[in-house]
User: Which sequence fits this backbone?
């Protein structure tokens, strides 16, 4: 145990890298979720098809394959990505595909009458989504986004395989240098668990905040 | 970088051998995940608070930590404790254990979604616990469980490349080994991606059909 404690600086460094990777790819995934999820409602068939191709491609292949593809194959095609950037893009694009389905499902779950009401009020497409559909769809999305955020955190561990020095990578270093096995892996599992639990707490807080506001407005409406 | 069919045909036999291992790992892992998931679900629904809370937190710990780290843990730590497993066995155990925490939620939700009136009806007919389960609860609980369980099978299939990290030569690792020794990344990595798409898109379609089918049977109230 003491031996592992000597390595605490690199464990802290790994924790920071893991958090950075999670936050950065979460932002990429969130943007993609909305862009792709809303594209599914586009008037233009080409945009809808592009969204489906993206979705099926990233949801249908394995995340680790996508990561290796970005890390080893893209340079051959002349695109050189730093490992961290490749990791962020791979994690973000992968989770974005799942997220886009969440966005699409949530918008579709808004009652049909609401879509029709927006049309009856002669709202433009932008107004329809901005003032009618999204405010009702977003609260539905939040719990599922919370689950996806945990999946994303766990996915970042795979990025250690493309030489990103995250927590998992650091645990491997400690294992190789000290020949200890139980301690490094147990410690990083606890760290992952703590980070995940914080994320769960944050998402629950946001969900509560949003639902609280909704209840008040509903009551006012009545 | 140009696509070479020569390389593609060269790597294909090795990848097919890997595919056999991938399928083996997916199915045995899934059977383990279903069996363990059922056990976890039953423990979670136990009347004893200690049993139910312990099961909850153990499941949450497994669910909030990366599968990759759990695989390393099983692969490196178990031999130190005197338990020697082949890499494939450790991988299957890891997959099964990780996904049992997901399937247990499916089992639990399936059983809990059977209306209380059905339990009471069974009681009023003086059914024994076995009869209650066999003739009243399970016939109503199982159909809605099938689509999510099928979806987890697909998810597990896509997670099997992680076993390559603990030296299992499955589909992805077979391609990766070839890539590393021949320094040809484009063809093997693209083929792996194509393999995954070929399997997961039709199976996702089948899962979707299952979902529609079982929703209809239960009157769409699920």
Assistant:
């Amino acid at each position: 145990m003491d031996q592992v404690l000597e390595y605490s600086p690199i464990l802290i460094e790994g924790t920071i890298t893991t958090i950075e990777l999670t936050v950065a790819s979460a932002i990429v995934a969130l943007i993609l979720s909305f862009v792709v999820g809303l594209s599914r409602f586009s008037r233009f068939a080409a945009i809808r098809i592009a969204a489906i191709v993206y979705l099926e491609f990233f949801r249908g292949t394995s995340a680790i394959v996508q990561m290796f593809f970005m890390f080893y194959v893209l340079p051959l095609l002349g695109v050189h990505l730093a490992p961290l950037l490749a990791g962020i893009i791979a994690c973000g694009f992968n989770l974005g595909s799942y997220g886009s389905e969440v966005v699409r499902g949530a918008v579709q779950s808004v009652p049909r009458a609401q879509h029709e009401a927006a049309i009856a009020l002669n709202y433009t497409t932008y107004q329809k989504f901005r003032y009618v559909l999204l405010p009702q769809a977003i609260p539905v999305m939040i719990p599922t986004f919370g689950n996806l955020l945990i999946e994303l955190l766990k996915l970042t561990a795979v990025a250690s395989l493309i030489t990103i020095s995250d927590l998992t990578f650091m645990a491997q270093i400690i294992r190789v240098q000290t020949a200890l096995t139980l301690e490094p892996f147990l410690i990083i599992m606890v760290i992952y668990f703590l980070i995940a639990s914080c994320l769960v707490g944050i998402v629950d807080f946001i969900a509560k905040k949003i639902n609280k506001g909704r209840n008040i407005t509903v009551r006012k409406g009545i | 970088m140009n696509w070479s069919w020569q390389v593609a045909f060269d790597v294909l036999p090795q990848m097919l051998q890997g595919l056999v291992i991938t399928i083996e790992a997916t199915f045995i892992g899934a059977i383990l995940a279903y069996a363990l998931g059922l056990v976890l679900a039953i423990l979670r629904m136990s009347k004893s608070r200690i049993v139910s809370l312990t099961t909850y937190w153990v499941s949450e710990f497994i669910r909030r930590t990366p599968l990759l780290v759990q695989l390393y843990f099983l692969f490196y730590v178990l031999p130190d404790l005197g338990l020697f497993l082949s890499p494939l066995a450790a991988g299957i155990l890891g997959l099964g254990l990780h996904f049992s925490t997901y399937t247990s939620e499916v089992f639990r939700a399936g059983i809990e979604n059977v209306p209380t009136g059905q339990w009471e009806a069974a009681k009023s007919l003086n059914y024994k616990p076995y009869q209650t389960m066999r003739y009243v609860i399970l016939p109503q609980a199982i159909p809605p469980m099938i689509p999510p369980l099928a979806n987890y099978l697909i998810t597990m299939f896509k997670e099997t490349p992680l076993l390559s990290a603990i030296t299992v030569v499955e589909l992805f690792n077979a391609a990766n080994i070839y890539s590393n020794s021949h320094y040809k990344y484009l063809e093997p990595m693209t083929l792996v991606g194509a393999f995954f798409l070929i399997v997961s898109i039709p199976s996702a379609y089948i899962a979707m059909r299952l979902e529609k089918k079982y929703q209809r049977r239960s009157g769409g109230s699920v």
Observations:
- The mean pLDDT of chain B is 90.
- Chain B touches chain A through 37 residues (CB under 8 Å).
